């Protein structure tokens, strides 16, 4: 790592800090005679979740997403502790001060000085010819996955005629968002080279361009189907409205200033155009993109829509209860919380909605 | 293809149209006793360019980008004919009417009823430890590339200590843009499966999430270095200002309406907020993103900047003569015109600028 110029000392230090913070949480729990099973990413599964009364994730927001991804029981609390405050915003975790004072958090839980927070999540139905409801875990490292997947693909090629399939409910619930877009840009993608000897240090030999527009049709709240071409479609929850969706949709101070300057030019501004006004408008606009994780509604946004003779997009973003998407893509996928991916190719139809039965139980400590 | 639900009949028809249009161009040239070499993508190379007095691309904008990518001579005209007007906007090609009336275009060229247009292009210098100045052609289909690249990677692992390298001028010139971003999202990316039997129908078994923020440092016009985290950095030419850059930066009618509503709420609008005003402001703003292909200046924009405690971004977009970027990414690349890709990992520094010697010679016919 160091030879390649990576900051090995920095990585080691962050690992040390994380390990120390995890020990603190585990010790705090065991001091209260709470039985603790400490599992790493690979060992974390639905059996472990069933065993537990509650799940605590120790890491950043990504770890919290992973923890939530195996919890389907509405009454199984999941609590996040941010063991890496330097690197993670910890939106999904307890406030950072509990990282070094976890017993305080436990005391509040004992005394009922908290309330339950149900974070709504998104469910996905997939149907159509040639769909593949088997998820790909983007964080999975095991070599066996290659063989597993090769068999999987062989199976699918054999079964090609057998698939007028009804809607499959996919075995995932999105805590942040579902993103639909082209996964690899090049139709002529050649290969990736896998060095079996040292897994972590190998990298695919080919880099694929990020930029490939996605073609699809979209229907919002059972409205009319619209053909679209864009860099992808993002459908988020209230939780996710602070995440990627926010970064897609937020407006820059610079852009608002420019827009108000133009409006002023058209004689439409009767106040001096100063930084304070621009800041207010920018902040108000960006805040309007956020909403409560407990609201059972979704926010969809189209990323970099391409508008021309063929494609239109009447609304670039908005709230909805249901979004249906029909893929017209060659090589697209649906990605849930940046961690699990499903093929979503020409002919497949996804139905995206919130069911309050899928909510994730978390806690909000009183401050 | 049809079994998978693809529109085979449609693909075949487009191929037929394209072939007919190509024949029309070739016949028109030969009728004037102009010697024509008709080459496909794979056969198109620098030797062919050297042989020619002029290069005509027959396809869409993508084909024009490919044609330009092998031309480094400022005085070798490259002309694009849009043989696929249904699918391609043809921004880089002659007006669509010449597709079926190419002799008219030739007549104008003979009579001098045109002017030369020099489209400025971007050059790239790369330096730093562990860089790899070998480009990967994202459109290249040949199997041998795998072996080529495997050898290439082996070489690099052996040479790891030998690389305090000065700036390499990369053998490419961007006609549209250079994009810098993470190429694959998952650090634990496993593999892609390659079916050697039927190349075009095989698809990698794993889809990688598109969403992975890129870390880098940026210095504009030799200004101070700024740490940034975003979905990537786009640096375009005047030509490219109509392309991806436009889609990244354009503002939606819906967003402008919302911004003006908020400004109105703060007492800042003295005109009724009607669709006409919103449309005017939207159009003016979006038009300000475009500029002449002949202007020797670049436009940089940061895609979905992440602003938090650690990362700031003083300017999200702007014009510049020089952009330097230091990679802090694990698995990033620089992608030129969506077709050629260079590794750009932790420690590598790219210097991006326009040199008028690199301009591409095209024609603007008088109308």
Automatic annotation (TrEMBL), chains A, B:
Biological process, per Gene Ontology: NAD+ metabolic process; NADP+ biosynthetic process
Gene Ontology cellular-component annotations: mitochondrion
Protein's UniProt keywords contain DNA repair: no
Pfam families: NAD_kinase
Alphabetic keyword roster: Kinase, NAD, NADP, Transferase
Catalytic EC class: transferase
One Gene Ontology molecular-function label: NAD+ kinase activity
This enzyme's EC code(s): 2.7.1.23
Highest taxon listed in the record's lineage: Eukaryota
Keyword set includes tRNA processing: no
PANTHER family xref list: NAD KINASE 2, MITOCHONDRIAL, PTHR13158
Family: Belongs to the NAD kinase family.
Protein name per Swiss-Prot or TrEMBL: NAD(+) kinase
Name of the encoding gene: Nadk2
């Amino acid at each position: 790592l160091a030879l390649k110029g990576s900051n090995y000392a920095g990585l080691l230090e962050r690992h040390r800090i994380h390990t120390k913070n995890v020990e603190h949480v585990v010790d705090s729990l065991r001091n209260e005679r709470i039985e603790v099973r400490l599992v790493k990413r690979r060992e974390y599964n639905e059996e472990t979740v069933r065993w537990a009364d509650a799940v605590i994730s120790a890491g950043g927001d990504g770890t919290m997403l992973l923890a939530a991804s195996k919890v389907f029981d509405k009454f199984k609390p999941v609590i996040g502790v941010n063991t890496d405050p330097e690197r993670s915003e910890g939106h999904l975790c307890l406030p950072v001060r509990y990282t070094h004072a976890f017993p305080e958090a436990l005391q509040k839980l004992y005394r009922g000085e908290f309330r339950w927070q149900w974070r709504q999540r998104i469910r996905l139905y997939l149907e159509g010819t040639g769909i593949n409801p088997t998820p790909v875990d983007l964080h999975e490292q095991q070599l066996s996955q290659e063989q597993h997947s090769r068999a999987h693909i062989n199976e699918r090629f054999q079964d090609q005629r057998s698939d007028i399939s009804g809607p499959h409910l996919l075995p995932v619930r999105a805590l942040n968002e579902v993103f639909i877009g082209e996964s690899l840009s090049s139709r002529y993608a050649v290969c990736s080279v896998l060095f079996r000897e040292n897994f972590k240090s190998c990298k695919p030999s080919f880099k694929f361009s990020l930029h490939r527009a996605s073609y699809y049709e979209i229907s919002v709240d059972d409205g009319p189907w619209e053909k679209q071409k864009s860099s992808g479609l993002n459908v988020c929850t209230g939780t996710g409205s602070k995440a990627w969706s926010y970064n897609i949709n937020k407006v820059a101070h610079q852009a608002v200033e420019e827009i108000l300057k133009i409006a002023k030019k058209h004689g439409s501004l009767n106040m001096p155009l100063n930084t304070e006004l621009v800041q207010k408008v920018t902040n108000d606009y960006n805040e309007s993109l956020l909403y409560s994780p407990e609201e059972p509604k979704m926010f969809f946004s189209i990323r970099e829509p391409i508008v021309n003779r063929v494609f239109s997009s009447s609304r670039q973003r908005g709230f909805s209860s249901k979004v249906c998407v029909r893929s017209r893509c060659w090589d697209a996928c649906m990605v849930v919380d940046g961690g699990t991916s499903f093929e979503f190719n020409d002919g497949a139809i996804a139905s995206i909605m919130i069911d309050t039965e899928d909510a994730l139980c978390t806690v909000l400590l009183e401050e």
